[in-house]
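Before the break, one more example. Copy the sequence into your notebook; we will annotate it together after we see the structure.
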Amino acid sequence: MVLLMTALDLNDDCVTIAKCRICDSTEIQEILDLGIQPLANNLREIADKSVEKKFPLILVRCNNCTSIQLSVNVNPKLMFQDYLWVTGTTETARKHCEILAQEVIKYSTNTAEVLEIGSNDGTLLKEFRKLTSGQIHGVDPAKEISDSARADGISIHADFFNLDFATRFEKDFGTVDIVIARNVLSHVPDLINVMNGIDKLLSEDGIFIVEFHEASRILNEIHYDSIYHEHTFYHSIKSMTEAQSKVGLVPFDMMESPISGGSFVLISSRSARVPSQRLLDAIKREESLGVLSEDAWHNFATLATKNLEDINDFLKINSKKKFRAFGASARSSTLMNAIGEKVKVFEAIADNNPLKWGKLSPGNHLRIDSPKIVIQSDTEIVFICPFNFEDEIVKYLRDELKWHGEVFLPLPGQPRVYTI
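Here is what the structure looks like once it is written out:
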């Protein structure tokens, strides 16, 4: 069934899209409905008794340009101004930033001026500061995290990035040689406005770097847990290329990234460059994996529903055992709210980010605390929510906490359980 979305005001904070955010087509088809869910990163204070805001979480596909996106726009101020995800929390993310900076600088010079959109705590920009003598800037609306980065000597602008910001920035600082957007162009409701801002700031010979969760991984490994309101898009190389073409940017190379369980880093410029073989191979592979196929995405929805049924069956069968969850991420919010009532078996969630300790998870309101407090010796099963950090979490459980027991991994693919 094709849904012709209307610009219905659901409330003051959320609006249903009327057309594709990239190509303007009204031919939008529903793929997967994960119900009415809270904002995945809006953790609650224990004393907060206010009504929690929840919104439809529905994945749709544009039948014209094949892009995958959400059916609603949630007000960005609700999601990002009090943001608690910190880039430098995991060793995986820190190491990736180091490698990425070293690779990106090869396309420019050691005097390159850099701007990162969604710079978070400045982890990536700190690596660039080691490699270039040019000015380094970040822009991020999360004030608390921006203040932290600024304290480390990074020039952070606490703001949302759009054409208006870019116009003001260009007037004060001029253009830059490298613009980077890591896992943020999936978040913006008005992608073309953001692309116009990038076009405004990028020097004539500059390069644009964009990292995004690989749609083929989402599709074929059933990453439905990566669907939440912050992610308005689930980009493919095709959809990202289409968006960049609006401002004359053309991808010429790519890298693979471990972030989010599998991401692409697309490298683009204005001047025509010979596309690398690895980019051509990735485009061909994306097509062969069914990313552009309507049937493949409907099959994804069927498998996601089956996965949730399998998780619920496991929790029911093992309901007498002492469970704890690990990882109070946005992924865990989508997963646990999709599971429903049976998540109460967890009682608490362990997380290594101190900013989250003492708060409650969205929707199901599980207490979040240090792993050293949550994972006690009597814990029988640890449910790992962010599967993409499985190795790191298992190592921490075994080496740091000296814990032994069963680990349950809900994704990717079929759930599995094993003993450590």
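Residues 38 and 53 are 6 Å apart (CA to CA). The chain is about 30% helix and 25% strand. Try to locate both features in your own notes.
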